Amino acid sequence: MMFPHNFLWGGATAANQIEGAYRADGKGLSVQDVMPHGLRTPPTAEPTNDNLKREAIDFYHRYREDIDLFAEMGFKTFRLSFAWSRILPQGDETEPNAAGLEFYDRVIDYLLEKGIEPLVTLSHYETPLHLARHYGGWTNRELITFFERYARTVIEHFKGRVRYWLTFNEINSVLHFPFFSGIESTPEELGPQKLYQAIHHELVASARATKLAHEIDPANKVGCMILAVPRYPLTPDPQDALAAMAASHEDYTFGDVHVRGSYPGYFLRKLKELGVELEMTDADKEDLKHTVDYVSFSYYMSVCESANQEAGGEGNIIGGVPNPTLKASEWGWQIDPVGLRIILNDYWDRWQKPLFIVENGLGAKDKLINETVEDDYRIDYLNDHLVQVGEAIEDGVKVLGYTSWGPIDLVSASTAQMSKRYGFIYVDRNDDGSGSLKRYRKKSFDWYKQVIASNGASL
Ligand code: BG6
């Protein structure tokens, strides 16, 4: 396998899933503080004690040890997110919380000291709770201003230290999980008018952050981040192919706007058919023209689509129906390494922008025996996917890098469990919150180290 010489190998995390210290040094609450069971139960009225994210893996205090381990694996980059509510505890303040910025100063400076390029997500499912409960989250246009203020604060503050930015994590996931965007209703309760207006607000906010990042420092590279799911027709029936196209369009909309700077025709038609009239100012249209430098995405699974409502059985959390040719993880996510090559080609053909795989991995239960985990299943999963990245590169796709999800075990987003582990590094913490938080190298730790050292030749 031939990977480019400057390929950015590394790992990816999110603040709420690793940091803990959920009220330390002036941090405000985020939507995650009322999601003790992830997406399994509705948000609670108040924060509860059973939320593992309160302490998470205590990266807040152990970041040096963790970054040392990443450096030992040879990471070229580390994807982290800034918790918006650490910088602006309520989200609508005009002055930042200095202690929040100081924490990220320490982390970023230590990464740079270790020669690791930071890749920062501005908003990773961490909308300040006040913005959710007081303003209705992204349904409210005012969030554009608040987000812009936050983005300006951190992009100016980290000028020259952080060059790679992502705006919203899996921006298309609002179609399925609105509470991550601070919207406390299901998509059905919300209705299309409010849902698409909220999406519009996020897209404008993303474009504004891109614009100001380029103004603050032309060396900044800003990407969008999409939850990527190849959607195959369940059968050769053209109606199934059409169903797959329609479902793919839902996701493409977000990339199309970020890359082309305006809404695609198929989307406008859909709005018309749904009777949705977007409130879109002339200034919004101008803002959207500030397009991204690269497209990043997460990839875990593919799904099938069918025009027949009865077909196929229940899909997974992002819709569709199961693919009868694929096996699934313990959490029902279907494993499809070839789908990664397909989506890389698809996105490249469509957008002709450099691509960055910023999440991929296998959530699995691990057994710590003799201070390590024999996680051959994880090695197989990652190896198979990386081989397909290599194939896509051979196909001519420009790929900037690959950051596996959760290089160190962390709290799951969908289930809020510790036992859904992705790491090369095991963290001693259990679903009931017990454990020493001690870190251990798994077998995959040495495997990934070798992959990076050989720049993919060992795959
Ligand atoms: C992505 C999210 O959807 O998938 C991450 O960006 C998340 O935050 C990851 O952790 C894996 O999902 P889960 O539910 O297994 O944690």
Automatic annotation (TrEMBL):
Catalytic machinery residues: 359
Recorded coiled-coil stretches: none
SUPFAM superfamilies, per the entry: (Trans)glycosidases
Cross-referenced Pfam families: Glyco_hydro_1 (PF00232)
Chain ranges passing through the membrane: none
UniProt cross-references to PROSITE patterns, sorted A to Z: GLYCOSYL_HYDROL_F1_1 (PS00572), GLYCOSYL_HYDROL_F1_2 (PS00653)
InterPro entries assigned to the protein according to its UniProt record, in alphabetical order: GH, GH_1_N_CS, Glyco_hydro_1, Glyco_hydro_1_AS
MF-aspect GO terms: hydrolase activity
Keyword terms, alphabetized: Glycosidase, Hydrolase
Family listed: Belongs to the glycosyl hydrolase 1 family.
Protein name: Glycoside hydrolase family 1 protein
The organism of origin for this protein: Rothia endophytica
